[in-house]
Amino acid sequence: xxxxxxxxxxxxxxxxxxxxxxxxxxxxxxxxxxxxxxxxxxxxxxxxxxxxxxxxxxxxxxxxxxxxxxxxxxxxxxxxxxxxxxxxxxxxxxxxxxxxxxxxxxxxxxxxxxxxxxxxxxxxxxxxxxxxxxx
Length: 135
Ligand code: SF4
Ligand code: SF4
What we know:
Blueprint: E1 2-9, H1 20-28, E2 38-48, H2 56-72, E3 79-83, H3 85-88, H4 100-109, E4 113-116, H5 122-130
Parallel strand pairs: 1-2, 1-3, 3-4
This protein binds iron/sulfur cluster (2 copies).
């Protein structure tokens, strides 16, 4: 069972976005959280990717796994890295991350679980379906 969810958000997008909808999707188990199994006690934290090219995510997540184990006995496989929709999808704030493959490679290298998407905007989905946003 997942005990800790680490949402990774696009550093550029965070210049404007307070992350409200990511948090809301986690609380309401909607969007990218709908199919994830986590209990009421599951914790959530949000971090930025650290900026392009995304390399900082490696050391941030490495330290997170270390701290979670050392202080709260949370195993690495009880942590889920959730890549926010502003990284994974073309959206209101701009195109999806051009370094997504690199970022997922770094997470895999750490041996951590990850999954895509957080808040899914209905309007953005419509725009992606119509071709106004890239899928
Ligand atoms: S997915 Fe949406 S709410 Fe979450 S950080 Fe990105 S832009 Fe903000
Ligand atoms: S690496 Fe991707 S997610 Fe991070 S700031 Fe650059 S575009 Fe955004």
